[in-house]
Design brief:
Elements lengths: L5 E5 L6 H12 L9 H11 L5 E5 L1 H7 L1 H17 L6 E4 L1
Parallel strand pairs: 1-2, 2-3
Helix pairs in contact: 2-4, 3-4
């Protein structure tokens, strides 16, 4: 299966860690048994799914203000992936 060229995720309605993980799971094609935590997110992006070439987050500043810890964890995971697995990682835009 070909890698998706672009996935856009709208974060404007996210108000909880659970909502954020549900949105990530649905938009990135994680399996139904995805654990909805940051360790499971790391496992999913590095071994379970093929990440899109471009990943675009809309309303990023809203997420940072509503859920700063979760926004930081999400960005950290994606940054780490691009350092450890650059050929598999998405180019990420935080809009």
């Amino acid at each position: 299966m070909a890698r998706k060229s672009k996935v856009k995720i709208d974060l404007s309605e996210v108000t909880s860690n659970e909502q954020l993980h549900f949105l990530l799971m649905n938009n990135l094609g994680f399996p139904a048994w995805y654990g909805k935590n940051w360790d499971a997110f790391w496992d999913a992006i590095t071994g379970l799914v093929e990440m899109p070439e471009i990943l675009e987050f809309n309303a990023w500043l809203e997420l940072e203000s509503k859920l700063p810890k979760e926004a930081n964890m999400l960005k950290s995971c994606l940054d780490e992936m691009s350092q450890e697995f650059p050929e598999l990682a998405s180019v990420v835009y935080y809009l």
